[in-house]
Design goal:
The complex is a heterodimer. By secondary structure, chain A is α+β, with helices and mostly antiparallel strands. Helices cover 30% and strands 23% of the residues of chain A. The chains are: A alpha+beta, B mainly alpha.
């Protein structure tokens, strides 16, 4: 028997009308006595109005819903939202637009800083890159205008072994290098200038104006 | 009306997480997207965050890290280069502020830093920025001065040419054309002193000696789309 209720588990099962294994005579008598007291107590309670349930539910339904709950509680409360399927692509597009427009801090901008002058003038100029490399198996141009992605601007070889590619570049300053065979980075001998790249190498520099890029 | 309200609720529920996700996507995520390992991206982000607290734009720092990774530079050297670039931009920012721009935009700071990396001094950066008068012109002006300096003209000459072009109200197109003109003059055998002299005398407006006209023999390897040369002919390549 447990200390707090004075009845064993079997006595509880007996009182609940469930199968039990064994009860002593004393326990059985105590349980019967308790059950009789409960029945007697219940008999003395005032009878419940059969219409009580309906009255309570009517009052609940009549009560206005709380209009000013906290925003968090409103968000956390489960609710059913009915939505026409046609709205799904519209909302997805709106979400994509927000992601695109959302601030990315100082550095979130995908536009290289070197291309800042390009924002001042929206012009784009087609620039032709050339490199003589007869022994190369592949050549590409990687620079600030394409996120330094090797292979983003691949060049085509002619019969003389001169590789070339033309790309639209925003007006402004750009830094780049040729990538030979995917691994060897070499500056452009015809670029306006070369500058230290900060890693022990040299970057080629071109400044593209609205009039076009002039090379000898 | 109910349907409209439900739609608005649904849109709000969709947009709120999207906005939060976009704001949370920082420099670290951008670097990892470009293939940098998480540890390197984190180290660069720490440098960039500290730089941003000093008013230095973090975008160019991310670009520098991406460039280093593309060139297969070891991570430790990438972090050192990024830190060095951050310090250069901090110095450049001071020079631009001293020129009278209280809150310099990121592109101007980056252009000033690149100019100083090319050999220009802080006082020369100040001269260009003061002559520009506004950030939209200052950044390309600094880039042109840096390019001229890197072409061998010397930073003093490069600064004089750019400041002179700004004071004589040359167009942005003429300003950006200066490195091309200098390159052609150089390839024609002129010395840096001659190039400076001719440019200071107004020969650097892109119409003389630049090889733009087909009848002068030199042909541009690029042209603005849809533009024509002075003879009214389309540039061909």
């Amino acid at each position: 028997m447990t200390e707090w209720d004075g009845f064993s588990a079997d006595a509880h099962r007996y009182l609940d009308g469930e199968p039990f294994e064994e009860l002593s005579g004393t326990e059985l008598a105590a349980a019967d006595r308790l059950a009789a007291e409960v029945r007697d107590y219940a008999a003395r309670l005032a009878p419940v109005d059969p219409a009580l349930d309906e009255r309570v539910m009517t009052a609940v339904r009549r009560r206005a819903p709380a209009r000013r709950r906290s925003g968090l509680a409103w968000l956390m409360a489960p609710r059913t939202v009915k939505l026409r399927p046609v709205w799904v692509p519209v909302l997805a597009a709106a979400a994509a637009l927000v992601v695109w427009l959302a601030p990315r801090g100082n550095g979130g901008s995908p536009v290289p800083v070197a291309a800042a002058p390009a924002r001042a003038s929206a012009d784009t100029v087609f620039v032709r890159f050339e490199l003589e490399a007869p022994q190369a198996r592949s050549v590409s141009v990687a620079g600030s205008f394409n996120g330094w992605q090797v292979g983003a601007l691949t060049m085509v070889r002619d019969a003389r072994g001169v590789w070339s590619a033309t790309a639209p570049l925003p007006v402004g300053e750009h830094r780049y290098e040729f990538v030979i065979d995917g691994t060897r980075w070499v500056p452009d001998p015809t670029a306006h200038a070369e500058v230290d790249d900060g890693f022990g190498g040299r970057n080629s520099v071109i400044v593209v104006g609205p009039k076009g890029l002039v090379r000898s | 009306m109910n349907r409209l309200r439900r739609s608005a609720i649904a849109a709000g529920l969709l947009l709120v997480p999207a906005v939060l996700a976009a704001q949370g996507a920082g420099i670290e995520g951008r670097l990892q997207t470009r293939g940098l390992p998480a540890s390197l991206a984190h180290r660069v982000a720490v440098v960039a965050t500290a730089a941003a607290a000093r008013g230095v734009p973090d975008g160019p720092l991310a670009d520098k890290a991406i460039e280093g990774w593309a060139k297969q530079v070891p991570p430790d050297r990438i972090v050192v280069a990024v830190q060095h670039f951050a310090d250069q931009m901090a110095s450049a920012r001071t020079a631009v502020i001293d020129a009278g721009i209280e809150s310099p935009p990121g592109p101007v700071i980056a252009a000033a830093a690149e100019a100083m990396r090319s050999g220009m001094r802080a006082d020369q950066v100040r001269s260009v920025v003061q002559a520009a008068g506004e950030g939209a012109v200052a950044a390309p002006g600094l880039s042109v001065a840096a390019a001229l300096s890197a072409q061998g003209l010397g930073s003093d000459q490069a600064t004089k040419i750019v400041v002179g072009a700004m004071h004589s109200h040359r167009s942005m197109a003429d300003l950006l054309d200066l490195p091309s003109v200098a390159r052609v003059m150089h390839d024609q055998g002129m010395s840096p002193g001659d190039i400076e002299h001719r440019m200071m005398n107004g020969d650097g407006d892109g119409d003389q000696g630049s090889g733009r006209s087909g009848d002068r023999g030199d042909r541009p390897s690029s042209v603005p789309p849809g533009t024509h040369d002075h003879d009214g002919h389309s540039h061909d390549r």
